Amino acid sequence: MKRVVVAFLVAVTIQEVDAQTTSSDSLTLYPSILLDGEYVPHIKIEDVVKVGKRRFKNRREMSQYYKMIYNLKKTYPYAQIAKYKLLEINENLKTLKTDREKKEYIVNAEKELRNQFEKDLTKLTVSQGKMLIKLIDRETGRTSYELVKELKGGFSATFWQGIARLFGSNLKIKFDPQGEDKILNELIFLYEQGLI
Question: Which is more confident, 23 or 148?
């Protein structure tokens, strides 16, 4: 109750200060927090994103940059889905008691994912596939190889790693936000903010 009264008093005080510029019948109530023993008004301000103008050395570099944006828009939603599906699978596995139940659950989950996404994922280009592998590592904290090994076993992980290598990819690759993937990491931030 004390907090509500203090918030009301803060709002009234602010209104009195602004009385010359606002009408007397408008009242804004600001939430307050306890800071150093005093209640102060607290307003959440949205993040402000400042992006400098990107300069390119040549047309090729510019083309690669815009291709990266295009590929990110194609693959990032799948990385998000992978993150949430993995969380869902892990939560459901905790409820199962026997190894047989867990194995059956994983087989059924894989069938469901294949039915839902296989057609779309096979349409990805090689460069989009490579990006998706990195994004899955970024979103889940584990490489695609580690995920396959955890869910399907070492043999399956090795098999799929061999297939990936045939297509010039690597399931063991990690997302490197400070090095090779620095620009991609910046683009992900812009994408999440709705700026690209």
Answer: 148
